[in-house]
Design brief:
Layout lengths: L5 H21 L3 H5 L9 H19 L15 H21 L5 E6 L2 E6 H25 L10 H8 L5
Helix pairs in contact: 1-4, 1-5, 3-4, 3-5
């Protein structure tokens, strides 16, 4: 477990929670991962792609470079997405740490330009991920998964200390 530095906690927890969800979905069938639900973006597969795609898009904004094609517009298999998760987290973490969080990043989407405090982008990306992972937990429950993957910061801290079961 990282130090008590909030940046370390947010980044490490976000990566761990995404990995936990992805690993829990690996044992599901393709049909289960693609099953439609009336929440969020509609399926486990789409939810994971959306979380990682948003993280990648915000990384581009923080790097002040042209935003790459959204993952959501690509036809990616679950295995491809699972393989990309670590790279996306690595890149996000590196760009967050490359600049002071009280600085401003400017980027564009379409014909609009936006400027945001870098620390606010970090907070948004990590809370956005938690929001959609909570929806994914509900989808897993509806699929009948009995042992849900751990996802909260408290579970993460307990697991790091060896106290979780």
């Amino acid at each position: 477990m990282p130090t008590s530095d909030p940046v370390d906690v947010l980044l490490a927890h976000n990566r761990w929670a995404n990995d936990s969800l992805i690993n829990a979905c690996k044992s599901l069938s393709r049909e289960q991962r693609d099953q439609s639900f009336e929440m969020g973006v509609g399926s486990l597969h789409k939810t994971i792609v959306h979380v990682l795609g948003a993280m990648r898009g915000w990384t581009d904004m923080l790097a002040e470079r042209e935003v790459r094609e959204r993952l959501e517009t690509q036809q990616l298999t679950f295995d491809q997405i699972a393989a990309m998760a670590g790279e996306i987290a690595d890149e996000f973490e590196a760009i967050v740490r490359a600049h002071p969080l009280d600085g401003i990043a400017t980027g564009s989407r379409g014909d609009r330009t936006f400027s945001f405090a870098r620390g606010a982008v970090l907070a948004h990306v990590t809370t956005h991920g938690m929001h959609h992972r909570a929806q994914a937990m509900n989808m897993l429950r509806q699929l009948g998964v009995e042992k849900l993957p751990p996802s909260s910061v408290v579970e993460w801290m307990l697991m790091a200390d060896g106290r979780a079961n």
